[in-house]
From TrEMBL:
Pfam families: Ribosomal_L32p. HAMAP family: Ribosomal_bL32. PANTHER family: 50S RIBOSOMAL PROTEIN L32, LARGE RIBOSOMAL SUBUNIT PROTEIN BL32. InterPro entries: Ribosomal_bL32 (IPR002677), Ribosomal_bL32_bact (IPR044957), Ribosomal_zn-bd (IPR011332). Belongs to the bacterial ribosomal protein bL32 family. The keyword Ribosomal protein applies. GO terms for cellular component: large ribosomal subunit. It comes from the Bacteria. Keywords: Ribonucleoprotein, Ribosomal protein. Residues 1-23 have a biased composition (Basic residues). One of its GO terms (molecular function) is structural constituent of ribosome. This is Large ribosomal subunit protein bL32. It comes from Alloiococcus otitis ATCC 51267. Residues 1-56 are annotated as: Disordered.
């Protein structure tokens, strides 16, 4: 079984974790509602890509 030869320092360990973080969602402006929403999602009114796709 493979075992590390030397202990990995805390600073070196933290440098490897620099890309492990939450990213902000990409928001797009919805002209039908006038609000921002996450892309590729249906708006609360049931519109997607300018067309009504969901009836309430």
């Amino acid at each position: 079984m493979a075992v590390p030869k030397r202990r990995r320092s805390s600073s070196r360990k933290n440098k490897g974790r620099t890309h492990k973080k939450l990213k902000t969602p990409n928001l797009s402006f919805d002209p039908n509602t006038g609000e921002y929403r996450v892309g590729h999602r249906i708006s609360p009114d049931g519109y997607y890509n300018g067309r009504k796709v969901l009836d309430k």
